[in-house]
Every structure is written in C-alpha cells, then in structure tokens.
From TrEMBL:
Gene Ontology terms describing biological process: folic acid-containing compound biosynthetic process; tetrahydrofolate interconversion
Keyword check for Lyase: no
Reported cofactor(s): Mg(2+)
Alphabetized Gene3D superfamilies for the sequence: NagB/RpiA/CoA transferase-like
Reactions listed under catalytic activity: (6S)-5-formyl-5,6,7,8-tetrahydrofolate + ATP = (6R)-5,10-methenyltetrahydrofolate + ADP + phosphate
Binding site for substrate: 55
Name of protein: 5-formyltetrahydrofolate cyclo-ligase
Keywords: ATP-binding, Ligase, Magnesium, Metal-binding, Nucleotide-binding
Molecular function GO terms recorded: 5-formyltetrahydrofolate cyclo-ligase activity; ATP binding; metal ion binding
EC number(s) given by UniProt: 6.3.3.2
Length: 182
C-alpha cells in the first residue's frame, strides 16, 4: 500500500533525526510506564521484541521483567513465522533477519497467555498500527488470541490516522514517552 510506504519513510527519517540519548531517555520513560501497568503486573510472561535502529529500546522493560521474576521471550523469524525463544541473557542475541537482533539459541516457548510488547512504525489514537510490512505480528496474534497486546512507540510515531487492513491486529494499549492510549 502506497500510503503505508510513505508513512514508513517519514517515521524512519524521524527516528534517524533523534539522538541516541533522546531515544534512550524516552525508552526509559516508556519502560517505567509499561512496568507500572496492571497488565504488566498481572503477567508472569513477557513476549518482547529486540529493538533495532532507533526503535523504542526494550532492554529496560526486559531487565525490569527479569528483576520482577517474570519469564521473557523474544522472536526469531523462521520462514513466514515468528518463533519465540526464552531469553535469560542478552548474550543470546545475534544479528538475524534484516540485521535485527534475534536469539541464536535457547529454549523455544509456546506461551498462550502473556503480555506482548509490540513494535510498529506508526499508530493512531484508535490504536491502529502500521507495522514493517511482513505481517509477522498479525499472523502470530491471530493464532494466539489470549495474548495481551501493548505497543510501545515514541510520540512522533503517533498520527491522526493510519491505513487499516482487515488482517491487522491492533494493540490494546499504546505507550509513548508522553501518554497511554487505550
């Protein structure tokens, strides 16, 4: 979809335009907000992405989860699917699909109930999401309906409206450095 391409280009440029320090500061703030959510407190298991290229950094959420005695898993792309590996140490991550950090080894998990920390390129206030175009999250979530979906984003990724397709699965909550959108 042409519109999504344009949005991706805009957001990638905006991500590049911010300093590592800004991305780090905002990511810490987002992690504090996420870990204060009841959805986080009520979950024993967290499915988180490994960030890349000025996305919201997930390491602060992952470290908090470990400290809170929760289990964490991160995705690896296998063909058309995402497979989640239990993460016990950041040293398990190596460059994978498109240079994105992925678990090189570990135990594969099949959790039907967990809190998922979703990435995305852009979102709107109706909680619609534009992803990276691979459909990995939509396909995974379609098969795992009991997973709670929390997207993390920077405020500059929030748009007034983003294009929606019938196969899109939206996050239930979006957390930015400034706000919580439910």
């Amino acid at each position: 979809m042409e519109e999504k391409k344009v949005i991706r280009k805009q957001v990638f440029a905006a991500r590049k335009a911010h300093t590592d320090q800004q991305i780090d500061d905002w990511s810490r703030k987002i992690a504090e907000t996420v870990t204060a959510l009841p959805e986080y407190s009520n979950s024993r298991r967290i499915l988180a992405y490994a960030d890349y290229n000025h996305e919201v950094m997930t390491k602060y959420i992952i470290e908090a989860a470990w400290n809170d005695g929760k289990e964490v898993a991160v995705p690896k792309v296998v063909g058309q699917d995402m497979v989640f590996y239990k993460l016990t140490d950041f040293a398990q991550l190596e460059k994978g699909y498109f240079g994105i950090p992925e678990p090189a080894r570990g135990e594969i998990v099949q959790w039907e109930e967990a809190l998922m920390i979703m990435p995305g390129v852009a979102f709107d206030r109706q909680n619609h999401r534009v992803g990276y175009g691979g459909g990995f999250y939509d396909r995974f979530l379609e098969k795992h309906p009991y997973i709670t979906r929390v997207a993390v984003a920077f405020e500059f990724q929030m748009m007034s409206e983003v294009p929606v397709e019938p196969t899109d699965i939206s996050p239930e909550i979006i957390v930015t450095e400034k706000e919580i959108y439910k």
